[in-house]
C-alpha cells in the first residue's frame, strides 16, 4: 500500500510540473511567432544575421544593414535582441548584450540621419 501511495504522489508531482511549464512554453512560442511576423519580415536575413553576430559575437556591422534595422524599428530591435539574450546559455552576459544592442541602434540611427 505504501508503494502505491508513493507512485501516486510521484505521478501527481509530474503532472503538476507539466501543467506548470506547458503554458510557459506556449507563451514563448507565441512570442517568437509574433516577433517573426511583425519584425523579422522587415529586415533581410543577411542583415538580421549580421546584427545578431555584432551583438552576440565579434562581428563587424555592415553599414547598409543599418537602413533595414532602422526600418525595422527600435521596439522590434530591442525585443528581438532581448528575446535572444534571455536564452539560458546567454543570460549570464545579458547586460553586455543589451548594451551592444543599444550601441548598434545608436550607430545605425546616426548613419541613417547623415544619409
Automatic annotation (TrEMBL):
The keyword Signal applies. The keyword Signal applies. Keywords: Signal. PANTHER family: BIFUNCTIONAL INHIBITOR/LIPID-TRANSFER PROTEIN/SEED STORAGE 2S ALBUMIN SUPERFAMILY PROTEIN-RELATED (PTHR31951), BIFUNCTIONAL INHIBITOR_LIPID-TRANSFER PROTEIN_SEED STORAGE 2S ALBUMIN SUPERFAMILY PROTEIN-RELATED (PTHR31951:SF27). It comes from Arabidopsis thaliana (Mouse-ear cress). Residues 1-20 form the signal peptide. Residues 38-109 form the Prolamin-like domain. This is ECA1 gametogenesis family protein (DUF784).
Amino acid at each position: 500500500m505504501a508503494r502505491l501511495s508513493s507512485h501516486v504522489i510521484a505521478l501527481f508531482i509530474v503532472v503538476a510540473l507539466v501543467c506548470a511549464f506547458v503554458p510557459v512554453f506556449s507563451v514563448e512560442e507565441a512570442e517568437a511567432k509574433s516577433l517573426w511576423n511583425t519584425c523579422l519580415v522587415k529586415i533581410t536575413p543577411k542583415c538580421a544575421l549580421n546584427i545578431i553576430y555584432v551583438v552576440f559575437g565579434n562581428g563587424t556591422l555592415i553599414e547598409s544593414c543599418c537602413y533595414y534595422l532602422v526600418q525595422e524599428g527600435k521596439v522590434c530591435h530591442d525585443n528581438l535582441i532581448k528575446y535572444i539574450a534571455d536564452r539560458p546559455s546567454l543570460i549570464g552576459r545579458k547586460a553586455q548584450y543589451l548594451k551592444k544592442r543599444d550601441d548598434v541602434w545608436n550607430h545605425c540611427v546616426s548613419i541613417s540621419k547623415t544619409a
